[in-house]
Amino acid sequence: MIYLDNSATTWPKPAQVRAAAARGLSDLGANPGRGGYPASAQAAWEVYQCRKKAAALLGARGPEHVSFQPSCTQALNLVLFSQLQKGDHAVVSDLEHNAVMRPLAALAAQRGVTWTAAKTVPGDNDATLEQFRQAMGPRTKLVVCTGASNVFGIKLPVARLAALCHQYGAKLCVDAAQTAGLVPMNVEEEGLDYLCCAGHKGLYGPMGVGLLVLRDLEEPLAPLLRGGTGTQSRSLAQPEASPERYESGTLNVPGILGLSAGLDFVRRQGPESLCRRELSLLRELYRQLQAVPGAVLYTPEPDPAWAVPVLAFNLEGLPSEETGRLLAQRGFALRCGLHCAPLAHEKMGTAQQGAVRVSPSAFTKPWELESLARAVRRIAP
């Protein structure tokens, strides 16, 4: 199998990630912070080290600004359900994933929250920011946007958007599922109020662990879950302090250890270096697909100025799922359809056909994409 679905989850994982997660199961089975014995203390120390690494990579003020979540989706839900109340207005981009849109739909139904989708203009950040400006109003409390589209790779100017939000008294929540590990980010310097990350994509950790990074701790969020934290156990009130406030229940220690090793891998390689290499692979594929009769490409040639390493295409006359099925028969693992992002497909005119998505990783070889281009040429109508 030639795996090219890394926007869904990176695979294979680095050897050190696999070893660290396995060590969490074989050698470090104690519950962190729940006992006074050495194994529990060691587990708590390992969790703290991962928190420190995440804070350093993502530009948080300190490790207490980083909480572990089961997924980026849960981190987004935590922010949305805490921040948006009756009468509030939110602004999103027209590229958002259902991890944002479904919670917003629920908040609209349950609390009367309203929202507006701002039009993005790929390659023109000034025009994109103007669209966000026009979408904002006196009731806008929160702007939620993806760092980059999970279908078309289009990046958003999140630092400039944060400055715009603050001018209007709103806060910015960034869905960094597709940018963490590929695009340098600094929560503090860029003014990103809430940063939600998947641990299992560009950070190369296992599934089942995500991150919520808070720029400021002075206005705590309302937690989604309440329960045991290993601290202040005499009180029935949820702790006020971060990160315990947002981490009820037993943490996924094997996943966190794997993520810790993934953070080491990304730090050594460098997000910009990883992104440049993968975009270089996609540019060559893009040029080869341009020469395939009936191949439809939806964006300009991938470039780090505006894109992360994601490429979408179709073959004229074929549903994207059929293209994916034919390529799967030839040994290629690709994501087809709507990618849980119907707004993005509506924007790009692919809501009916969907699209075939190609997303490489640090371990993708040039010959694998050359093989894909040959296979697409063979199945083209």
Automatic annotation (TrEMBL):
- What UniProt keywords are attached to this protein's entry? Aminotransferase, Pyridoxal phosphate, Transferase
- Which segments cross the bilayer? none
Region Disordered: start-end pairs: 225-246
Annotated GO molecular function terms are: transaminase activity
What cofactor is this protein dependent on? pyridoxal 5'-phosphate
Q: Which SUPFAM superfamilies match?
A: PLP-dependent transferases (SSF53383)
Matching entries from InterPro entries are given as:
Aminotrans_V_dom, Aminotrans_V_PyrdxlP_BS, PyrdxlP-dep_Trfase, PyrdxlP-dep_Trfase_major, PyrdxlP-dep_Trfase_small
- Tell me where in this chain the Aminotransferase class V domain is found: 2-363
Does the keyword Flavoprotein belong to this entry? no
The family annotation for this protein states: Belongs to the class-V pyridoxal-phosphate-dependent aminotransferase family.
Q: Which PANTHER family match?
A: CYSTEINE DESULFURASE, ISOPENICILLIN N EPIMERASE
What's this protein's name? Aminotransferase class V-fold PLP-dependent enzyme
* Record organism: Candidatus Acutalibacter pullistercoris
